[in-house]
Amino acid sequence: MGDKWTPIVLFCLADASKRYSELQRELPDISKKMLTQVLRALETHGLVERLVHATVPPQTEYKLTPDGMRLHAPVSALCNWASANEEFLDVVHRRAESAPGSAHRGVD
Asked: Could you tell me whether strands 48-53 and 18-19 are parallel, antiparallel, or unpaired per DSSP bridges?
């Protein structure tokens, strides 16, 4: 939950199950590798269920498990807060990037 993308992916899956390609379209800034890593981690932790449909080509669909749905309210609140406070977060991000003697430390 502590990385940039996990709460966003959970937020995107809250309303309905989605195919991998749908998630990619909704999250254009995430790389395929990162999306795959986040989905695998969520699946490992029992928060997301992966469904593979036997079609040609195979379609993979992801949906929140009941445990994943329990996280919807706090994740939704955090995402809504972040949207409403983009300017503040930009300032914090720039401050972290420009701090003397420190590289950007992932304050996303």
From this structure: unpaired
Q: Say whether 49 sits in a helix, a strand or coil.
A: strand
What would the pLDDT profile of 56-85 be if each residue is shown by its tens digit? 888 899 999 999 999 988 988 988 888 899
Quote the pLDDT of residue 103.
58
Residue 37's identity, in one-letter code, is Q
Q: Report whether 59 contacts 40 (CB < 8 A).
A: no
Q: List, in sequence order, the alpha helices (H) in 28-105.
A: 32-44, 66-70, 72-84, 86-98
Q: Which is nearest to 8 in space by CA: 32, 39, 52, 46?
A: 39
**Phi, psi of 18, rounded to the nearest 5 degrees:** -140, 150
Predicted TM-score of the model (pTM): 0.75
Burial class (CB in 10 A: 0-12, 13-18, 19+), 48: buried
Radius of gyration of the chain, Cα coordinates, nearest whole angstrom: 16
